[in-house]
Amino acid sequence: MPLRPLAVLIAVLVASLAAVPVADAKHKAKRRGGTVHKAWPATDRGKPANRYARFLARQVGPLTPPKRKRTHTAGLASAAAVSATNPLQLVRSFDIPTDDPSYARLLNTSFTYDSAVAAAGFVSMRYKAQAEQLLDQLAALQRTDGSIDYAFNVYSGASDLSLRSGTIAWAGLAATSYEKAYKSKYAAFATKIATWLTSQQRADGLIKGGPDVTWVSTQHNLLAYFFFRAMADNNKGDTAKAYDATADRIAAGIDTNLLKSAGTALYFQQGLADTTHPLDTQTLGILYLKQRGRTADAGKVADYIGANFSLSNRSIVKSTVPATFNNTYSAAGPFIGYRPYADEGAPDVLWMEGTLQARFALTSLGRSTEALDNSIISWDGITGDGAAGPLMADRTITTNRFNEYHVWPVSATTSWTLLIIGTQTTFVTN
What is the distance, to the nearest Å, from the Cα of residue 21 to the centroid of all Cα atoms in its chain? Predict the structure, then answer.
């Protein structure tokens, strides 16, 4: 099944996100457009005090690619044409060392998920201006049917035209988190997302991956469930009841089709007819079960993570081999954390975004994470004095059927760090 897990580098994405073909763009709804209110460091507005938030803020907007001509931006219709003086104000997903073979290929890549999670992280820390900059840009790029493209090149404005339910649900979650904290700025943006997600709902209540596919992702449905519950919380009367009813239909589909058991173990598989076991599906599943009052079942999924995803005694070493390239960062560790999949042939890599998600989920159950927290603190120290964010992984893997992983600072690890600091116990020095 061609699922594309959130915040993991997608091998099939072409170099630098090729320009939007005019013919393909004509089949998409137009973009809504709107004003994007810029924030620090583009302006003096809203400089974060937290070092992780400052790194994330610096990831917004483009870097000039090496010896590349600008790709044309047919089909892109945001508030104004994308240009050198008015680039997309989205988060660059990766902070890539300049000597890395993938530097030119992925320098200005911005997965929509990464900007959405960053916006939610800024909201959790009460960095309003930074959250608004990202949400303004996402709202301007939103199509009139409520959809948002899967990824963008922040330098050229080109986009990956795929529409994926999980990514769009995350944008909705960022908007609803802002609405809960600050009220009435992105309500229309979130409502259009709700309309689009509902259009992808099947008779069994599940949300399919997008309009061009028939597969169903567990992760997408967990995110859609959270989003519709949040929409119900942010509304009243019959509108709130309708959103709750949609969430209940999704939950019924999840419980019937996607939550599995093996003996005493409980886990979530990747999707319908897809028995892959991703870490992030388990972490979101814990939060889902806990929200539905099934704490004992959530604990079983946590036990499943501990038994099948745990890694220990890890270190980071340099390599100049192209497939495993890492010529910048090294650390003896030993580090502990979690692998991204629990399947045969899965990448043997400590994935920090998933590790932070697991920490978030385990803490929600009241479980001790002291040893994990100490390892995370050491991990964060690898990139120095706070000018860079936490690394993505402990090794580079580019030849794997699952996904690529790199020893780079990435926005997603930083955003989940902010979510933990903003909503749970602070385990890192600010």
Answer: 26
At 95-130, the pLDDT tens digits run 999 999 999 999 999 999 999 999 999 999 999 999
- pTM of the predicted model as reported, rounded to 2 decimal places: 0.91
Q: 303-357 pLDDT, tens per residue?
A: 999 999 999 999 999 999 999 999 999 999 899 999 999 999 899 999 999 999 9
Q: How far is Cα 85 from Cα 18, in angstroms, rounded to an integer?
A: 21
Find out whether 33 and 86 touch, Cβ atoms under 8 Å. no
